[in-house]
Amino acid sequence: MDITLHKSQIVNRQSKITITGSKSESNRLLLLKALYPEFTLENISNSDDSNLMTQALISDSDIIDIHHAGTAMRFLTAFLSIQEGKEVIITGSQRMKERPIKILVDALNELGADISYTDNEGFPPLRIKGKKLTNNKVSLQANVSSQYISALLLIASRLENGLELTLEGDITSIPYIKMTLALLEEIGIETSFIENTINVKPNTQHPTPNTQNPTTLIVESDWSSASYYFSIVALCGVGTEITLSSYKENSLQGDSVLVDIYKHFGVVSTFNDNKITLRKETFNVQPLTLNLQNAPDIAQTIAVTCFGLGIACDLTGLHTLKIKETDRLVALKTEIEKLGGEVDITDESLHLSPSEKINKNIPIATYHDHRMAMAFAPLALKTNIIIEDANVVSKSYPTFWEDLESIGFKITK
Ligand SMILES: O=C(O)C1=C[C@@H](OP(=O)(O)O)[C@@H](O)[C@H](O)C1
Ligand SMILES: C=C(OP(=O)(O)O)C(=O)O
């Protein structure tokens, strides 16, 4: 379904939006709950990816199709490898079959797993014969995707001797690794991360480490989803406010760095009572230079904000973008250039030149990538824009379009 976003204004200058739980935290906690059922979860993400994760964890089918859900694919590969006596094929969308997984499969097999490729070496689908993993030390390349590392950490406490993981090379997306370790600690598992070595202590006895004190874990709302509101406020007039719930100042999510980044565009954030209010203030228009190695999922949002404001930007640390839902660097260049911008990309960077106009009524292709749809939507504050295959947002934020309508966006099918 393609939709048209007509040139819009935020109706209520003090709009409020509630966003559901972080997709990243949810997918970790769902897996941990499958290993340690005693704790309860609140504010789990309503995203397709988390629903797929939930279903896959209880599936007794011998084929699991995880569609476009990258974290679920990686985390389940580790989970299924320790389900003794079970044999499963895990597959996904056409794009998933192009997203590399060899680094994780090699590490699991070195630990003693039995995982093979049904089609192309290095890529899903995988045939996984669940068994007891007997080794406890492994090294892996850390500059391709942190999801491989989190996947290993999530099952580590269930291995006989725990896990000692040595990370080779530059470590990408570090906040996601720290999030995994923090959640393990929250349920009582001991971990350490010193220089390039991570240790997780075993916890093979039943039930959970925290049995005497069963825990309810409340998932903080999704900061990547919040990024689109930072962009909206940045593109609005001075005085516009949007309040988002439920957020905290000390987040486990690396994308909370938005608070600092968007000061550059005059967006001032105030925390109060688990809510964050974004307010547009006057600001000095200046080019933006930023390394996003720790927060790759907000690269599209930031590039489009800069384009909407006519500001130049130099974004680096983007090497993981080409293996996500689509090659996000190529997708950004193609779509911003349709709108009249000028973009240069390398394998890990994006340069946007300053611009003065935005072409009207341009159809934006989304390439099965939720973040393409959501990142371009705020431009409707400047001009009419068409978003192709708009349902793609359900991968992480199913009510995105309704929420935009509630604050004044005019949308027709
Ligand atoms: O662990 C996670 O929840 C994620 C890690 C990041 O992936 P990479 O480490 O591959 O950059 C991020 O882009 C993805 O959306 C979610
Ligand atoms: C990259 C993303 O997700 P995944 O890797 O889990 O498919 C994302 O949500 O931006």
Automatic annotation (TrEMBL):
This is 3-phosphoshikimate 1-carboxyvinyltransferase. It catalyses: 3-phosphoshikimate + phosphoenolpyruvate = 5-O-(1-carboxyvinyl)-3-phosphoshikimate + phosphate. Its EC number is 2.5.1.19. Monomer. One of its GO terms (biological process) is aromatic amino acid family biosynthetic process. GO terms for molecular function: 3-phosphoshikimate 1-carboxyvinyltransferase activity. Phosphoenolpyruvate binds at K23, G70, R99, Q147, R328, R371, K395. Residues 61-404 form the Enolpyruvate transferase domain. Catalyzes the transfer of the enolpyruvyl moiety of phosphoenolpyruvate (PEP) to the 5-hydroxyl of shikimate-3-phosphate (S3P) to produce enolpyruvyl shikimate-3-phosphate and inorganic phosphate. Pathway: Metabolic intermediate biosynthesis; chorismate biosynthesis; chorismate from D-erythrose 4-phosphate and phosphoenolpyruvate: step 6/7. It comes from Confluentibacter flavum. InterPro entries: Enolpyruvate_Tfrase_dom (IPR001986), Enolpyruvate_Tfrase_sf (IPR036968), EPSP_synthase (IPR006264), EPSP_synthase_CS (IPR023193), RNA3'P_cycl/enolpyr_Trfase_a/b (IPR013792). The active site is at D297. Transmembrane segments: none annotated. Belongs to the EPSP synthase family. Gene3D superfamilies: Enolpyruvate transferase domain. Keywords: Amino-acid biosynthesis, Aromatic amino acid biosynthesis, Cytoplasm, Transferase. SUPFAM superfamilies: EPT/RTPC-like. GO terms for cellular component: cytoplasm. 3-phosphoshikimate binds at K23, S24, R28, S145, S146, Q147, S173, D297, K324. It holds the Pfam family EPSP_synthase. It is found in: Cytoplasm.
